[in-house]
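Q: My collaborator sent me two sequences in one message, no labels, and asked for predicted structures for both. Can we handle them in order? The first one she listed is below.
A: Yes, handling them in the order given. First sequence, followed by its structure tokens:
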Amino acid sequence: MKVKERIEGDEPKLPRQSRAPRRLQQSNPHVFATAKDFLRSKYFEILDLGIQCLQRRISNKAVAVLSAIEELTQKAWFGKAFSEQSVEDICQHYRDEFDERRLQAQLLCLPNLRSPASEANLQFHDIMLAVGGSPMNAMIPDVLKLLTFYSVCPSSTATAERMQLQSSEAHQNLQYLRNTMSQPRLVCMMLLSAYPETEMVDSLDIDKLMNELILRRHARRRTFSMQCV
């Protein structure tokens, strides 16, 4: 069964074609022939934006350091052999904050902090809580500092957040509304769009709103008829 047969409602229509001022136009803008072509371009635009946001997050240089800290701490906690290269990379990243040999020696002490009843499949967050709450954590100050740096290190970028806004409701509505209404009215429209299921929206009297809109302009009073309230 096709999607349009499962969803009740009208057929999709092309939105109003907005154009830039003539003085800024160097060529005629592209005009979609059908609503299907328009929605197809929007679909691939959103898909490309999502892929770009994921790539920007994953390619962030802080992600590699955080992954190395997680792997290093988990292996040391369970008494497994860890890579000395990971320790060296972390120390080079934080420069003068850590001594490589002392950090390795303190990591080897982590199995002593484990309780006999501790599970074998603890997550990294649980290991952090166990190390922070252990009475013996004063013996491993460099490990505590490393976990502190892990907790405060940002793993996302503001650029990716700005890319996400381009596919948001605010961006979609702003394309048409930003040049056709004032800022207060735009804010009210965005609130109604963001919270469509609230009691405030359900309790609105549409006829009363239409009458108030018509009465504000003489041209509207000549064009539109009033609704009986």
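Q: And the one she listed second?
A: Here it is, processed independently of the first:
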Amino acid sequence: MKRLTETKNNEFAPSWSPDGKTIAYSGLKRLITSSETNMEDTHVWTLEVATGARCALGAAIDNRQGRPQWSPDGQALYFTVQSKGSVGLYRLPTAGGTAERIGPALEARGTVGAFTIGKDGLVVAAISSPAGPAELYTRRPGGDGALKALTSLNKDLLGAKKVAETEAFTFRSFDGRGIEAFVTKPPALNRAAATRAADELTFQPRHPTRCRKSVNRASDRMLSNTGSALSSMRSGFRSWYACSSHVNARSVSREAA
């Protein structure tokens, strides 16, 4: 067995190119800490086996990238990218250049899970969204570039349900850093639902009483005026975040850009 890399970083998820000359993999640049982890996002790299030359192919995309898959002709790599509440599928030429977002659209906030590339370049991906569980979608090379639904397994189930709307918003933390968050607005607001949502917020606050009061005030405003519900929740979360040192909300997802 021959060692191919001599770094103090992490390299994982290797994949051979179709011609057997290059390995694509996920990698980091920062050193591993005593906790065997770091805060760096993984990027896509390539390694020429004959020369040992490495290339941070995905460095131009400053977001977390999933494990790469080769195109059938070896001229491009496909991988997922996390950004602004979505996980999109991208295609990046191995020779360099601009990455192409295969889908879903950034504003759709969809999430690509598993995906595969056929011999003819056909892309098949499982994509979920805030509106429903994952379904299969396809995109053919040389077409109009649109993703086409292949399955609708949850159509009957979701047709009888009213799915809550999820909206993104940003707020400033105590140090001025912009924080992106998401709020799911219940289809019908009531006191019991608002109380349960407040009870599901767990934290280790510097000022527990003030934090709880700020959330309760936001809940009261939600109940008294549904038209200003989002504004009230934003205000509550700003106050709550500023006095909390740790946040864990099961009903709210937050991703820092």
